[in-house]
Amino acid sequence: MGDLSRWLALFIKELRQIGRNRRLIVMLIIPPTVNVVLFGFALNPTVTNLRLGVLDESMTSQSRELVSAMVESRAFRVDRNYLSDQAITSDLGAGKLDAALIIPADFAKKRISEETAEVQFLVDAVDSNTATIASGYAAQIISQLNQRLLKESGTRSGRTASDQAQNSDTSNSTRAAAVPPVQMQVRPSNPSVSQRVALLYNPGLENSWFIVTGLIGALLVLQGTIVAAASMVREKEVGTVEQLLMTPAGAGEIITAKIAPVFLLLTADIGLTLTVARLVFDMPVRGSLLLFVFAGSLCVLSGIGIGTLISTFVDSQQQAQLVSFFVNPPLVLLSGATTPVEAMPKWLQPLTMLNPVRHFSIISRGILLKGIGIEILYPNLLALMGFCILLVGVSAWRFRQQLK
User: What is the percentage of the chain residues whose pLDDT exceeds 70?
Assistant: First the structure.
């Protein structure tokens, strides 16, 4: 009973100390809220209104139809029309354009004669991600145009075949009319094969759902690291470590009493970030909320373990912040929280499994978006528990060594 009373006294002392630190309270509320909103809106892979330069050497209705298709998608906007390819490539190199479309003079002639009409699409690839997306948009726009032309060509071919069924001499021209003016293979030519696409778990293709569900774990670990490191190091700076050693409390009681208030405050951030995601991005909660909170608590403890471990190697809060800046960015970048792990190099992907944020991102998306339970997520939960026990255990051992 005495041990519990000593621990409660230390626990209340830590709570009062945190309550007097208004900057800490603000840091636990404002940054998670702002980061969830900003990252949810800002980290969006879709691009719109890319500056498109057009060099139309054909100057026909067919070429204008292609330009209109590019603009109607809202992915591109015609920034300027050019008269020479030297001028358009110069502006592209100078960064005045994001992409350029060059339509040759024989574009309409080839389309009318049912030949393959080629156009040149140039992209400023300094930003490789935007360049890849822009190229994909252009290919999709031309593919849709091809499908429409193919459908129109097939309709005309059907009418021709019906009108001239009695004249076998026109069969060659009928087959030629069935050839699309712009050749592009977009789906199997066998009409007996059909393609169906089902958008599961995110039918609206809301990119913010992917970003926010991964970002929650990253914020929990980052907050835990910074707050725990600052809280532990503060005892060294103000010289209260020696006073704690003079009390009857043991090293284990001191460590747990210091960790517990930080853990409770950071656990509240789980509800805060989830509420913001729900209100701002209409984030669904399809699975067990209790399981989500439990996984988030393990993530918080992992962050506290990292912060406590950092505090054992530094002597001031400034040093702790600098070390945190060195540790936290790799944790976020190698977690799959904001970018798919599959987009990373092959040799780097296995390293992400050594990251607690990576496992929480899988759990978070599984619970919130897919509604799956512990029967599927248990490997990631076990891994998260392992990281939690290892990090908290090692950091507590290191801190206890300093108290001797």
Answer: 77
